[in-house]
Amino acid sequence: IITHVSRWLQQRPGRLAYGPPAAAGAAGAGAGLLFQGALAAAGGPPVAWVQVGFAGVLAAAVAGLAMRLYRELMGHLVTQSEERLRLSDQLAQERLLMRALMDHSPDHIYFKDRDSRFVRINRSHAASFGFADPSEAVGKTDFDLFGPEHARQAFADEQEILRTGQPLLNQ
C-alpha cells in the first residue's frame, strides 16, 4: 500500500508533491503507521501531513471489498431470481400445453419408464383399456393389460429401443 500511495502522489507532480516521512517519533512508534508524509503544492511548503494507520487502511479496504462483493452477490441473486421466475412461468405454460394434448388428443399417447411401466397415459388410450381415469394405468405394464404373447413382443421392442436409441417404425 505504501508503494501505491507513493506512486499515486509522485504521478501528480503539478498538483501535489510527496516528501519522505519524518521521523515517526514517539507518536508513531507502535501505532502501526503504514504511511506518513507531507503533502505540498508543487514547489511550495507542506500543507498537510498524511498519516494512514494500518488498521484504518485495512478496515477501509475490507469494507470496500465487502460492499463490492455484496453488490455483486445481490445483483447475481436478483438476476437468478428473475431467471427462475421466468423458467417457472415457461414450465407452467409447457405443462398446460401438455395437459391439453393429453386430455384432448384422440391418438394413443403414453410414456413408460425403463421397466416398461406406464408413467403417464392420455385419456384416449386409458379409455381403450377401459379405465375411467388415466391415473389407473400408471405403474402397469403390457403384461397387466395384454396377453402374454403381445406383452413379450412389446417388452422386447421397447428394450431394443432403449438399447439402441433407434425408433421402430411401421410396426
Based on CA inertia axes, which overall geometry fits?
A: elongated
Structural class determined from secondary elements: alpha+beta
CA radius of gyration is: 38 Å
Order of adjacent strands in the largest pleated sheet: 1-2-3
Spans of 5+ residues with little confidence (pLDDT < 50)? 14-36
**H/E element sequence:** HEHEEHEEHHH
Number of helices: 6
Q: Biggest sheet: strands, sense, closure?
A: 3 strands, antiparallel
First and last CA, distance: 78 Å
Indicate the mean pLDDT.
Answer: 76
What portion of the residues fall into strands of 2 or more residues?
A: 15-25%
- Which percent bin holds the helix content? 40-55%
Task: Write the topology of this structure.
Layout: H1 2-10, E1 17-19, H2 25-28, E2 33-40, E3 46-53, H3 54-104, E4 110-112, E5 118-121, H4 123-128, H5 142-145, H6 148-164
Antiparallel strand pairs: 1-2, 2-3, 4-5
Describe it for me?
It contains six helices and five strands. It is an alpha+beta fold and 171 residues long. Strands 1-2-3 form a three-stranded antiparallel β-sheet. The radius of gyration is 38 Å and the shape is elongated.
Structural descriptors:
6 helices; 3-stranded antiparallel beta sheet; single chain; two-stranded antiparallel ribbon; 5 strands; 171 residues; alpha+beta; elongated; 15% strand
